[in-house]
């Protein structure tokens, strides 16, 4: 629930509760006031009647449903305003009381007339008191109840205006791209948000510094690691030439060169893994032709394919997406290179471009041994290889290729799905890009 809706509901609930509490208290106060007023009226009526009653009906005219009276002497009814009332309507005891007759509740007052030695009893219906109290409280509370709707609208508008600086800050954060670590502008008329903006700007500054240090580290590591490995390669090659007539030494040199090659490959993959991390990579997203990109990647690794006398097919027409050309090139190169590595000599590799439900898809299949479905998720873990270094294919690797591919797929909001290739019998890798119109730019 939003803060604006929460505050509006809380304030309107409080206003409503206070209004009804006030109405209840007002009803009680009105009832007490009405009781006092009507008791005074009943007492005054008794005094008036005491001065006018005789053995005949008094010359006072009033509505019998509003008041009624009786005159008794020695427990004998002398006068009654209602012929149906033949028994005492109240006890012969001075003061106020309540009684039931004529199918309703009455408030009564008994007055002893000393000179005449008679009892005068007057009565008034209690429902008139309730009606008066209800009319008074409704007249007072009805405008306030009707104004709750207006108060709700005004409260919502005032809270919305008060939260406008927070909305501006939220919009500024939403408009920031992943690589935009510039400081946020100050939010006007919001002293409470100044510490928040300052803290966020400090965080952005630290993140930017961390990214720059990471970038410099990658560049320095690439320089510091590649240079000695290159020198080691050259020296190993020269040494192999010098020892080419010694079969045992040549065998050892072959192992040494393979180790150097593997070390170089691991270094390159680690640096590439770090470089393509979605949290750090700042891509240059442009419109790309997948068909042309696939052709370029296939051409770059074709010597590896030709060396194993393999065939590769590129099927499908032009498929346009928005993405980073360098990163997508690495993604396709890793997947096609893997297909070539694990496909036997003279095997077939197929790259298919298609569109499924407005979603561009690249499918890479091979005629290699494939893998068990239980391994489909684990192969994306860093440094994980099926069978470890004793992989049945005897292909050298470090278990980072698919981890890098997953990073790049996440960068483009794409999905990687592994399955069995029904046509070629090996592994099928599907790259499902974001639907057109939803691609991150």
UniProtKB/TrEMBL annotation:
It is found in: Membrane. The keyword DNA damage does not apply. InterPro entries: 2CSK_N, HATPase_C_sf, HATPase_dom, His_kinase_dom, HisK_dim/P_dom, HisK_dim/P_sf, Sig_transdc_His_kin-like_C, TCS_sensor_his_kinase. GO terms for molecular function: ATP binding; phosphorelay sensor kinase activity. The chain crosses the membrane at residues 42-60, 136-159. It holds the Pfam family HATPase_c. It is an enzyme of class 2 (transferase). Gene3D superfamilies: 1.10.287.130, Histidine kinase-like ATPase, C-terminal domain. Keywords: ATP-binding, Kinase, Membrane, Nucleotide-binding, Phosphoprotein, Transferase, Transmembrane, Transmembrane helix, Two-component regulatory system. The keyword Signal does not apply. One of its GO terms (cellular component) is plasma membrane. Its EC number is 2.7.13.3. SUPFAM superfamilies: ATPase domain of HSP90 chaperone/DNA topoisomerase II/histidine kinase, Homodimeric domain of signal transducing histidine kinase. It is a multi-pass membrane protein. It catalyses: ATP + protein L-histidine = ADP + protein N-phospho-L-histidine. Residues 220-437 form the Histidine kinase domain. SMART domains: HATPase_c, HisKA. This is histidine kinase.
């Amino acid at each position: 629930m939003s803060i604006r809706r929460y505050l509006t509901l809380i304030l309107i609930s409080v206003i409503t509760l206070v209004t009804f509490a006030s109405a209840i208290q007002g009803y009680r106060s009105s009832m007490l006031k009405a009781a006092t007023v009507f008791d005074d009226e009943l007492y005054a009526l008794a005094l008036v009647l005491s001065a006018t009653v005789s053995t005949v009906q008094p010359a006072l005219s009033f509505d019998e449903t509003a008041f009624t009276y009786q005159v008794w002497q020695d427990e004998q009814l002398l006068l009654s305003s209602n012929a149906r009332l033949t028994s005492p309507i109240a006890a012969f005891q001075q003061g106020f009381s309540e009684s039931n007759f004529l199918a309703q509740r009455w408030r009564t007052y008994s007055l002893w007339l000393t000179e005449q030695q008679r009892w005068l009893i007057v009565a008034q219906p209690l429902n008139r008191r309730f009606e008066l109290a209800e009319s008074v409280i409704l007249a007072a509370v009805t405008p306030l109840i009707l104004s709750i709707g207006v108060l709700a609208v005004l409260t919502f508008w005032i809270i919305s205006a008060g939260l406008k600086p927070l909305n501006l800050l939220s919009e500024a954060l939403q408009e920031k791209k992943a690589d935009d670590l510039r400081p946020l502008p100050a939010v006007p008329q919001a002293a409470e948000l100044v510490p928040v903006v300052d803290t966020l700007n400090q965080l952005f500054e630290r993140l930017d510094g961390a990214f720059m240090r990471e970038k410099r580290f990658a560049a320095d590591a690439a320089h510091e690691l590649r240079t000695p490995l290159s020198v080691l390669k050259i020296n190993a090659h020269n040494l192999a030439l010098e020892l080419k007539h010694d079969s045992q030494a040549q065998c050892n040199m072959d192992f040494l060169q393979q180790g150097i090659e593997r070390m170089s490959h691991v270094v390159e993959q680690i640096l590439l893994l770090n470089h393509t991390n979605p949290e750090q990579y700042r891509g240059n997203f442009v419109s790309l032709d997948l068909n042309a990109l696939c052709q370029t990647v296939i051409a770059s690794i074709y010597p590896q394919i030709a060396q194993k006398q393999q065939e590769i097919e590129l099927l499908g027409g032009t498929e346009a997406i928005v993405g980073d050309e360098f990163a997508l090139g690495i993604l396709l190169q890793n997947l096609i290179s893997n297909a070539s590595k694990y496909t036997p000599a003279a095997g077939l590799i197929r790259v298919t471009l298609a569109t499924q439900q407005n979603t561009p898809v690249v499918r890479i299949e091979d005629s290699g041994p494939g893998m068990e479905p239980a391994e489909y998720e684990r192969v994306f873990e860093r440094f994980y290889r099926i069978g470890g270094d004793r992989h049945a294919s005897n292909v050298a690797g470090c278990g980072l290729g698919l981890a890098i591919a997953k990073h790049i797929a996440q960068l483009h909001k794409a999905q990687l799905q592994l399955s069995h290739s029904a046509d070629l019998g090996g592994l099928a890798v599907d790259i499902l890009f974001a639907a057109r119109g939803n691609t991150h730019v």
